[in-house]
Each structure stands twice: as C-alpha cells, then as structure tokens.
Design brief:
Oligomer: heterodimer
Helix content of chain A: 25-40%
Strand order of the largest sheet of chain A: 1-2-3-4-5
Shape of chain B: elongated
Number of strands of chain A: 5
Helix content of chain B: 25-40%
Number of strands of chain B: 18
Chain lengths: 114, 515
Amino acid sequence: MLGRRGEELAACYLEAQGMQILDRNWRCPEGEIDIVALDGDALVIAEVKTRKSLAYGHPFEAVGAEKLGRLHRLASAWCRVQGLRTPAPCRVDVVAVLDDGIGEPALEHLKGVG
Amino acid sequence: MALGRTYSIALVGLKGYIVEVEADIGQTLPAFVILGLPDASLNEAKERIRSAAQNSGIPLSRRKITANLIPASLPKRGSGFDLAIAMSVLLAANDIRPTGHTVFIAELGLDGRLRPVRGILPAVMAAVQAGYPEVVVARANVAEAALVPGARVRGYATLARLAFDCGADPQDLALDFEPEPEDQEDPGAGVVPALAPDMCDVSGQAAARRALEVAAAGAHHLLLTGPPGAGKTMLAERLPGLLPDLGDTEAMEVTAIRSLCTLPSGSVQLVRRPPYENPHHTATAVAIIGGGSGLPRPGAASRAHRGVLFLDEAPEYDRGVLDALRQPLESGEVVIHRSAGAAAYPARFQLVLAANPCPCGKATGKGVDCICTPTMRRRYQARMSGPLLDRVDIQLEVERVSLASFGQPAAEEGSATIAARVRAARDRQLERLLPFGMETNSQVPGRLLRGALRLKAPTTRILDYALERSALTARGYDRVLRLAWTLADLSLRDVPDGDDVGQALGLRQAASASP
C-alpha cells in the first residue's frame, strides 16, 4: 500500500518537474519498471523507493549495483516492446519517498545514477 | 560546492608527510570510497567513520562520499586518518566550519570517541616542520604531542565535542557522551620502579669494570668473552646506567621511535635515559634491523638508537643477522625497502656482544675442563668474526669471579660515581671533536687520528713495534689510538701518554690473545 502511494507521489513530482510520464508499473518476466518518463529528449527509467522511517536505512541504500543493472536491462526491454530503438540518452533515476504517515512526505530525486 | 578539505600526516618510517584529505559528496546513490592507496585498516575507516558520526549525532550524508588522500601516490596506512576524513566529509556537507590548516590525527571509535594512535610524536614533528602547527589529537595523545616545540595541540575526547567547537549545530550532537578517560592507569603507576642495575652489585672484575667505563666514555663497541656465570650479562645491563643523559635532539629521536613501537599510555615524557635492547639470540634479521609487511617497522637496532644493543650469546645468532648489523654500525641508520616503500630509521647504537669462549663455555684460563676440540672452538668463534668484530673496539675476556673478591659487601664503586667520570670524559671529547663534527672518540676516523690528532712518536712506540711485528693490523692500530684517547679523557689528560696507549692495547688484545 505504502509503495503504491509512494509511486503516486513520485509520478506527480516528476510531472511537476516537467517530465512526461510514458508508462507506469510496466512488467516483464525479468521485473518491473516503476515509472518510464521522458525528460526533454532523454528517456528516464525511474525507480521509486518508499520507506516509513530511516530505521532500516535510507531508501537510496536499497538500490544496489544488481538492481541498477536490472533497470538498464529493463530499459532496453521496454524499448523493444514499444518498437523503439533505444534513444541515445537513456538514464536511470531513483526517487526516495519518506512517508511517516503523519507529516508531509519527503521526496528526494537522484538523476542518472549509473 | 560540496567539497571539504582537511589535513593529516602520513608516516613513512620516522618521516612524516602532510596529507591533504579532500571529500566530495556526489549526487548519486549512497557509497563511501577512499582513494589514495589506503591499506586494509584505512579502508575500514569508512565503517568506523559512518558509525562514529551517526552515534555522535551528525550522520554523514546519504550520498556518494568520495574521500581522496593527496598525494595519491604515497602509500597510507593505519587508523590515524579517521578523524581527518570524518572532518573533511562533515565539511563537505556544510555541517561544520572550515578548519583551515589544522592537522587531525586520531582514530575513531564506533561510539564517536577519539582513540589514540601510534607515532604521534614523529607525526606532530612533521606537521610543525611543514608549517602546520595546529594539531588536533585524541585526549590520550595530548601529552605526547605537546612534547613537540612549537606545536599548538588540542585534545578531544569525542567527535561530538570537536564538531561542536567547529561550529556544528549543537541540537542533535551527543555532547553528554563522555567516555571514561582511558589513561588506563599508567601501568607503571603504583608499582615500585625496578631498581636500575648498579655497578656496585658487581664484585671484583676490576678489568671488566674498567673496560665498561672506557666503553661508556668513548661510546666504543664492546665484546665480552668469558665462561657462563662470569657476569657478562650483569656487566652489559649496567652499561646504560653509566651513559650520560640524552640531549634534547637525541631524546626526541628516541622518544619518536618509542612512540612508533608502543601504544601511548596516559603520561608520556621525553625519554632522557639511553635505551637498552636485549633481543633473544633466536631473533631474525627483521626483528633486529626492522621490517615486516607493508611499510617496514623499526627493529631492535633502531629501538636501541642512542643507547645500548646487547647481543647475549652472540655466536648463537644467525650469521646473517650479525652481518646485517654492519650497515647500521657504519652509517648509524637502517634503510629498509618493502613493497609499500622504503623507510629509514636511525640506528646509532652502542653494540655490546657477549660470547662464551667455546660451545661448552669452559675454555678460559688454561681451559683444562674444556671438552671442545680445537676445531669446534675455532668454528664457534668464527661465527662472529670478520668484519663485525673489526668494528668492535674493546674485546675483553671476563674471568670467573675469584672467591677473594666475591661476597665483599659494597666495597665497589657505584654507577653514579663512574657516570660522573664518564660525563666529564664526554665533555672533553666534545670540546676537542666538535670542530671536526664528531662527538665521541669511537667516531674518529683513522685519517684524523694520524693527522690532526697525531701523537708523538715516543708515545706510540709500543704500537709501532706491534705493527712492525704484524701483531697488529693497520685498522687495529687506529682502534688502539681511539681507546687511548678515551683513556686520556677519563684521566683528564689532554693528550694520551705511553701508559694510555699500553692500556688501550691491553683492552684491544685481551680476547684475541686467548685460544
């Protein structure tokens, strides 16, 4: 439930940043892309991580090298399915959502993380 | 710009280099990278720093932290960089004010306390020399760091306190955390210090006492040969007690080496007494000379710098170990090369060798009890002969104590009286030799002995005769002259006379005359 809400927030945030959301929760056998968006010319694959508190580490810390590798593979899979050639600028973003359920949720956005 | 810059010191041997610690916080996924040839213990700093900062109430940034230690090519080791890296990262995150040219040297505990590290004295000396007199160390290191003239030392117990003084927001800081002082009661405190061995414990042995005094006065290397139980070890242990106190520079050198070898205890003082090292005869070349993996560490020869290195049962040492001492005997320094770099340690020690005359140890006097064959005896002696013995000025045979002199209570001179004579003799040497850039008679080269310090022909007649008969080599000739000068200094004569030369010849030849 929390994750769903976090993705909602993230999508709104990215749109507010001027991005155009192309796809959400796109699934294939290898995994799921939370958000696919277009930032100007660049295709953005966004991973959203939501946490209630920092007790088990910052959301960003949950994104490891393995996850990044998978996101890159998923990006090309998405392009294939959409019948697109992978556009030259394609990057992976991570959005962290801290939502303790009381105050305003805090969003942090890292662009092009590898 | 999220960039922090602080300073620390990297030690290579006793030499310290200023290391600039840059930290950058990059806008990507969390990670902590340390660049600049860190060794394993320095790489572990990441985890220490993260926990220490967290527990001090100033958590590190949740982004990619890159710490760069400059110059990158200099290998760095140990935990002393922890604090500098932590401060640099906090600076990069704008948590604290810039710290300017302050040098940080301390290890961090997971709870955020600052822990002392080894080698603070040479590190602070290097910092001051490089023009960085502001130094921050762990509280337990303050006493040692403060020995360095010109250093402005600040000691802290915790990272939180230091961060507070550097302008961190006190709201979240763990300022009430006050670790108990870790002066872990000076191990020496409360224990009555062992009585320094004194010469008045030595009964009889007039010749050996005299030889020891001469050795102390002129800083001559010494070989004691004699049967087991004659008191060779007893004599050697008493040599440091006869040597004069160390001067300021020497005391700094000795304290610096000690600082590298031992963890600091609460009260550190300048080492004023000459050190005494007494390694076991199974010691390896690395144990004596220094070495070890990574950057080499000082060995017994360096720990005995400006003091006495006593090798008991010298023939039992590996030949390679004894021969490895030739270089430091010559140059007063050891340079050790290892993969991580070369380190130079001072090693100007006074060598005292003790040996049995043969494997069974009974070949003294007439040697009637000795069960060794001549070949065994020769082989035993040959283990330490040659170039090493060439450098030993006094070679003395120590006889068994006779009944007559044994058990005579306290009739002998104490160390203090002898030390006073030694000091007077040293002063005379210094006065004479300072123009030539030397301090003791043992350093005087043959060129000078036969040049500016040449004795009149009648004085050296006995030597010339010995040389002519081939009873003495040219090198031995110089050595006898050196001893003669020391003997003259001890008897407060300006120039050695025939008696001094005769006595010197006796000290030199006593051992080589034996079988």
